[in-house]
């Protein structure tokens, strides 16, 4: 199979592949930097919990709209995600329960609730779509939705970059200069939820967080400064989207898991070849 | 003389049900140089955070006098900052200009020059572009001092600034502390080294959850008071405070 047939042809031939590609690249540009910040805040698990929390909201949107409707499901997901974000903040502040335990309980409950709600009305196919995503469903509306979220994310990150970074690095300092840490924390959680919701149509609710965390882990292995980390994460996420789409197209695989597996492969390769990786340790440079 | 002492009236602070600081009364006078001493777990860091307004009091009150935004500068205990965060030395120091740049403002040429001056006064010129994770503990402490220099705060609170820092760096940083104090700023430092306190700090608050003594260092650090601190320390560690043993 020629390069053209393998890589270019699917996109020339099919509109849904072009839309999927644009969606994936946009998702990567938003999710990558968000993932880096999540990781630096040691909130990977929070991202996980939120991605599950989005599910019941999306499912209720699904019920109300009577089918796979991105605006309805997206709105439901955003509302549900925000509720869980605020609740878990409250729980970890007011009880002795360890943070990860309270998040684990939250997302197990959310997952069960979401699956239950979808199965009330929808078919098993619908359930699969919600859980694992489907590139076929990405229409023009979905594309605008994803594009809007990515644009909003990038612009917001650019504006609140400094306070967000400081709140992450040294929250005590931000409080000591009356910088208002809590607002930025909430804004950041809002961005996380938005990006998870944007991802779930292409990747499914279960996989959406993968597009945040895996590219971020790759970036952390290669870069030492935050801006470079964010660029690498966005790049890895976008390229994983492209390669994942191509592979899933040729082999008839589900797109979400394939994209995440490509990102996971990038992570494994990075573990081997990054500056502090296994290969450099075993074979020190001879120069 | 600046007005506005920080006055503590019968301050108590609890974490959940754990009583960390109990019944502290006294004041940090404007322009004073005070050491806070006491065993581990005595509530020293807790007290500093409460003075900054970061923790709420369970009883009592703290008067902070005129309260402008940038009045307090705070150096956290080393373990509280994540040094592996991907920031450069220059970026970290420039955070001290927050009072002028705020969350969104740009960094002027003038501000950048001040940043370089600050780095120079802590002896780190030329390291601007280094990543903070690659610094030694002492170099990182110097970076945090440079940030405090830029902050231009009236009241400067240092939580164990010289722990795990070598003699040379300690000397340099102590000189900065003295310069702050000479310029009329109030400096409060948590320290464990009594010789250092006697040599450089005129005022001392000795505490072990409850106050033991607060006043001039000579009268505060008498052998009897130190002995009391040690006995109370055994209570701190041996039994959860607040359960029995309230003498
Ligand atoms: N965030 C927290 N939550 C619950 N308890 C805390 C918290 N921080 C401190 N404590 C408890 O409060 C008491 C006082 O702690 P603090 O950190 O103020 O002591 P310290 O005097 O600074 O000790 P050290 O010399 O070890 O730094 C200790 O018993 C500690 O276990
Ligand atoms: Mg302490």
Q: How do you describe this structure in short?
A:
The complex is a heterodimer of chains A (287) and B (247). Chain A is mainly alpha-helical and 287 residues long. Chain A is built from 13 helices and no strands.
Our Rg estimate of chain A from Cα atoms comes to 19 Å
Small molecules held by this entry: adenosine-5'-triphosphate, magnesium ion
Output the structural class of chain B. alpha/beta
CATH topology tier name of the domain at 6-81 and 154-237 in chain B: Rossmann fold
Measured as a percent range, the helix fraction of chain B is 25-40%
Q: What is the CATH superfamily of chain A?
A: ABC transporter involved in vitamin B12 uptake, BtuC
The percent of residues in helical segments of chain A reads over 70%
The portion of residues forming beta strands of chain A comes to: under 5%
Q: Uncertain regions of chain B: pLDDT < 50 for 5+ in a row?
A: 241-247
Q: Provide the gyration radius of chain B in Å.
A: 19 Å
Highest CATH level, the class of chain A: Mainly Alpha
Q: Care to count the β-strands of chain B?
A: 9
- Describe the largest sheet of chain B: 6 strands, mixed
Mean pLDDT across every amino acid position of chain A: 84
Question: Which CATH C-level class of the domain at 6-81 and 154-237 in chain B is it?
Answer: Alpha Beta
Counting DSSP E segments of at least 2 residues, the number of strands of chain A comes to 0
Strand content of chain B: 15-25%
Q: What spatial order of strands do you see in the largest sheet of chain B?
A: 5-6-7-3-8-9
């Amino acid at each position: 199979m020629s390069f053209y047939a393998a890589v270019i042809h699917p996109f020339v031939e099919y509109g849904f592949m072009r839309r999927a590609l644009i969606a994936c690249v946009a998702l990567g540009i938003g999710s990558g930097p968000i993932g880096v910040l999540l990781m630096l805040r040691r909130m990977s698990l929070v991202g996980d919990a939120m991605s599950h929390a989005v599910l019941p909201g999306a499912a209720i949107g699904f019920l109300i709209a009577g089918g796979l409707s991105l605006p309805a499901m997206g709105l439901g997901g955003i509302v549900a995600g925000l509720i869980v974000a605020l609740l878990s903040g409250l729980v970890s502040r007011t009880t002795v329960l360890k943070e990860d335990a309270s998040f684990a309980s939250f997302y197990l409950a959310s997952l069960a609730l979401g699956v239950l709600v979808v199965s009330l009305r929808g078919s098993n196919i619908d359930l699969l779509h919600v859980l694992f995503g489907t590139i076929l469903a990405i229409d023009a509306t979905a594309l605008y939705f994803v594009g809007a979220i990515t644009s909003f994310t990038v612009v917001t990150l650019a504006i609140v970059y400094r306070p967000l970074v400081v709140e992450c690095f040294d929250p005590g300092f931000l409080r000591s200069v009356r910088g208002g840490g809590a607002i930025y924390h909430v804004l950041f959680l809002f961005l996380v939820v938005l990006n998870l919701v944007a991802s779930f149509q292409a990747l499914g609710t279960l996989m959406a967080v993968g597009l945040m965390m895996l590219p971020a882990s790759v970036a952390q292995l290669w870069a030492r400064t935050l801006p470079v980390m964010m660029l690498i994460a966005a790049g890895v996420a976008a390229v994983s989207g492209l390669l994942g789409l191509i592979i899933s197209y040729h082999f008839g695989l589900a797109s979400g898991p394939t994209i995440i597996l490509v990102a996971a492969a990038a992570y494994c390769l990075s573990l081997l070849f990054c500056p502090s990786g296994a290969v450099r340790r075993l074979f020190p440079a001879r120069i | 003389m600046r007005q506005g002492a920080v006055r503590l009236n019968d301050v108590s602070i609890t974490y959940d049900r754990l009583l960390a600081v109990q019944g502290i009364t006294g004041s940090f006078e404007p322009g004073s140089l005070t050491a806070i001493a006491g065993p581990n777990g005595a509530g020293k860091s807790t007290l500093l955070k409460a003075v900054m307004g970061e923790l709420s009091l369970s009883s009592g009150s703290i008067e902070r006098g005129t309260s402008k935004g940038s009045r307090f500068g705070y150096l956290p205990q080393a373990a509280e900052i994540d040094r592996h965060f991907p920031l450069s030395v220059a970026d970290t120091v420039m955070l001290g200009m927050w009072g002028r740049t705020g969350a969104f403002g740009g960094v002027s040429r003038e501000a950048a020059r001040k940043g370089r001056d600050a780095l120079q006064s802590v002896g780190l010129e030329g390291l601007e572009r280094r990543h903070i994770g690659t610094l030694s503990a002492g170099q990182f402490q110097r970076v945090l001092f440079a940030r405090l220099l830029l902050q231009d705060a009236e009241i400067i609170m240092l939580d164990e600034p010289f722990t795990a820092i070598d003699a040379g760096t300690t000397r340099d940083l102590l000189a900065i502390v003295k310069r702050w104090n000479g310029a009329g700023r109030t400096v409060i430092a948590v320290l464990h080294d009594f010789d250092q306190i006697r040599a450089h700090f005129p005022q001392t608050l000795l505490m072990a959850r409850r106050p033991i003594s607060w006043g001039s260092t000579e009268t505060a650090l008498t052998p009897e008071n130190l002995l009391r601190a040690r006995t109370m320390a055994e209570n701190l560690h041996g039994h959860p405070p607040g359960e029995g043993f309230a003498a």
